[in-house]
Q: What sequence folds into this?
């Protein structure tokens, strides 16, 4: 039984997906003054199904406690809800002690008039499945998939060096996993994130070079899914494994900019970036930027070193230099010239033609962000 001081230790403020609200995280907080370890475990019928850590200050949480001592956590396990049925018991624990669930005590009992399938999800977790940061239940990377991802990365690294003289370096979630954990992030089961830094700094030059890179990769036999700010690249050898190929540049103030965007003050210093150092990641020695920690702060903020299963990019706050992105017309042109009659070409045509496409093109980014924020 929980002690009388338990409510002050922490609380789950919103159940989100556990109440059937798809796309919404389960969020709460713990009091950093009352816990030694900020690891939070989500349990169903006594079985651990996911874990995360509290990190960000809970300034937006309503509580009678001193907000300076509260740190927030979040879970995104949306697919879990489809396995839950009548009588299933939800708990959240920190240091083995249950956290209060607002309005429900220390346990939330599922009542949805469905039969429980929790045994199925427990079996899958034992087989190596995890919830990714979009809430989907996906098999974690095994040794073979890691090898395929690294082989593809090495091939692209060689291609970029020989064709353009550029170093291809891990970035975003892959860099985060390499520095923080020495491996891929457990719940980041997508591709391998990599970036090249353009020698150019003017928008037109940077974009035209990225277009040429896409052309050259397609001509070299790679398969691409092209986006405005990056391209997913794979090959027949890599199968479903892919490299998310990003691009960046240094501006006139020697600040690192990236097409995908960032949240905090940019890392500064081309020379610092290119003072590469080696690090062991999942048994593979890879190069990372000399100022990797500054870049991770730029991308994720002060709490980059704290694992966060419920992390979600906030596009309304991300700094994006739109003049450095491909236009929709550029994407469609590349697809039609090199990937005719493909699903992606048809998809882009449908999404960006007619009235809907016109509105999409002329609407300022600030209004798009406001719309997403209101809808979210």
A:
């Amino acid at each position: 039984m929980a002690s009388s001081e338990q409510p002050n230790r922490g609380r789950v403020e919103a159940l989100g997906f556990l109440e059937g609200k798809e796309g919404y995280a389960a969020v709460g907080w713990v009091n950093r003054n009352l816990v030694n370890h900020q690891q939070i475990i989500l349990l169903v019928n006594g079985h651990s199904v996911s874990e995360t850590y509290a990190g960000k200050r809970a300034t937006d949480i309503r509580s009678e406690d001193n907000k300076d001592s509260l740190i927030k956590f979040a879970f995104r396990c949306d697919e879990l809800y489809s396995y839950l049925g009548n009588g299933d018991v939800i708990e959240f624990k920190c240091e083995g002690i249950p956290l209060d669930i607002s309005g429900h005590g220390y346990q939330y009992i599922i009542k949805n008039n469905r039969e429980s399938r929790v045994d199925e999800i427990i079996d899958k977790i034992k087989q190596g499945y995890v919830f990714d940061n979009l809430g989907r239940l996906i098999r974690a990377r095994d040794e073979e998939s890691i090898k395929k991802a690294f082989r593809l990365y090495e091939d692209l690294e060689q291609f970029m060096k020989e064709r353009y003289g550029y170093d291809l370096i891990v970035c975003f979630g892959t860099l985060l996993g390499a520095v923080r954990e020495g491996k891929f992030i457990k719940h980041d089961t997508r591709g391998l994130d990599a970036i090249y830094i353009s020698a150019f700094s003017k928008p037109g030059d940077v974009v035209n070079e990225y277009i040429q890179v896409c052309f050259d990769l397609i001509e070299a036999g790679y398969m691409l899914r092209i986006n405005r700010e990056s391209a997913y690249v794979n090959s027949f050898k890599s199968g479903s494994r892919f490299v998310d190929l990003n691009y960046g540049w240094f501006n006139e103030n020697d600040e690192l900019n990236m097409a995908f965007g960032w949240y905090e003050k940019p890392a500064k210093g081309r020379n610092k970036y290119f003072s590469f150092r080696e690090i062991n990641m999942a048994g593979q020695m890879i190069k990372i930027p000399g100022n990797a920690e500054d870049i991770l702060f730029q991308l994720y903020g002060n709490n980059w070193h704290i694992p966060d299963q419920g992390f979600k990019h906030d596009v309304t706050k991300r700094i994006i230099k739109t003049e450095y992105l491909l236009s929709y017309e550029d994407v469609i042109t590349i697809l039609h010239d090199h990937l005719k009659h493909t699903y992606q070409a048809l998809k882009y045509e449908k999404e960006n033609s007619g009235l809907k496409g016109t509105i999409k093109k002329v609407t300022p980014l600030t209004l798009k962000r406001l719309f997403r924020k209101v809808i979210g």
